[in-house]
Design a protein that fits this description.
binds nicotinamide-adenine-dinucleotide, globular, eight-stranded mixed β-sheet, 14% strand
Length: 303
């Protein structure tokens, strides 16, 4: 039976490990040709001599698939342009971009230094924008040349971006920014045949080893491993396939066997005085509105 991504060319950033590796293998299993990008950095973004992208390419080839490794930094314009070029040079086209690469430098806000803020915002937010821009330029040129485009982008946000996470101010801000970028990209690129969606995954990887190690260890009895990164990939593959036609600008939480559509910001209770409020009146109105509103979901780690 033909796979869901037969003939498609897919780029996955940060695909040497964790979720990205699982996505790359899952796309290949559905017939895609895959560009496995990974700079091969340590958990804190500093250089790691054991770059894993080539290893994932070997795994895909051993399973009969086609893949090439790319070692560029996706948070530079040069790395992002060269990544899109790698797909076109190796396989003649690009159909799907999965933005996934990133790292953490967790600190409480009062201790969060500027370098750790910049590094995390750079790798996630800029690291989504630049490959998206390079890929979009390629797809726009294809569309303008009259060739059919059914392109897909899957961005990677986080529960931290949706609700906030204590000790992760830099990461939460970057991941929330990715949600905004996703909405704008979906609205701007639809005319070229490009769909853009985002996921907020949860899985046991080196990034979350500490968080999930005890509570969510792999079951020893061979039962369903709810925190395996491979659980997140099926939705990513579908969003990256032709089959998801018509779905764009949406955000999904996905973990274990659960998929949730996130419904995002929408107006709650409103008051309109028809004139400017005084601060005291505005406060009185705000208190009434808050009493009528849904309480917010708690910030991760705050309770
Ligand atoms: N694991 C989770 O539960 C979880 C939850 C929410 C969001 N996420 C997000 O999922 C994505 C994947 O995370 P993971 O848990 O698999 O982490 P991971 O550390 O296992 O993998 C991330 C990979 O990105 C690579 N990378 C880092 N900077 C790069 C750069 N500049 N260019 C190219 N590659 C780079 C790293 O070398 C690494 O292999 C991240 O965006 C993360 O924020 C993960």
């Amino acid at each position: 039976m033909a796979g869901l991504c037969e003939g498609r060319v897919v780029v996955v950033t940060g695909a040497g490990r964790g979720l990205g590796r699982a996505h790359a293998l899952a796309f290949a299993a559905e017939g895609a040709k895959v560009v496995v990008n990974d700079l091969g950095v340590g958990l804190d973004g500093r250089p790691d001599p054991q770059s894993p992208a080539a290893q994932v390419v070997r795994e895909i080839e051993e399973l009969g698939g086609q893949a090439v490794a790319h070692g560029g930094d996706i948070a530079t314009a040069q790395g992002a342009d060269c990544l899109v070029r790698a797909a076109v040079d190796a396989f003649g086209r690009l159909d799907t971009l999965v933005n996934n690469a990133g790292f953490l430098r967790d600190r409480m806000l009062v201790n969060l230094d500027e370098g750790d803020w910049d590094a995390v915002v750079r790798v996630h937010l800029k690291g989504h924008f630049l490959p998206l821009r390079s890929a979009a330029a390629w797809w726009r040129a294809e569309a303008k040349a009259g060739r059919p485009v059914a392109a897909r982008v899957v961005n990677t946000s986080s529960g931290a971006g949706l609700l906030g996470s204590v000790g992760q101010g830099n990461y939460s801000a970057a991941k929330a920014g990715i949600l905004g970028l996703t909405l704008v990209a979906a609205a701007e690129l639809g005319r070229y045949g490009v769909q853009v969606n985002a996921i907020a995954p949860a899985a046991r990887t080196r990034m979350t080893e500490q968080t999930f190690a005890q509570a969510m260890a792999a079951p020893e009895d061979g039962g369903f491993d709810t925190m395996a990164p491979e659980n997140v990939s099926p939705l990513v593959v579908w969003l990256g396939a032709d089959a998801s036609a018509g779905v764009s600008g949406r955000v999904f939480e996905t973990e274990g066997g659960r998929i949730t559509v996130m419904e995002g910001w929408r107006p709650g209770p409103t008051a309109d005085r028809g004139a400017r409020w005084t601060p005291a009146q505005a406060g009185e109105a705000a208190v009434k509105l808050l009493a009528a509103a849904e309480p917010p979901l708690p910030v991760y780690g705050s309770q």
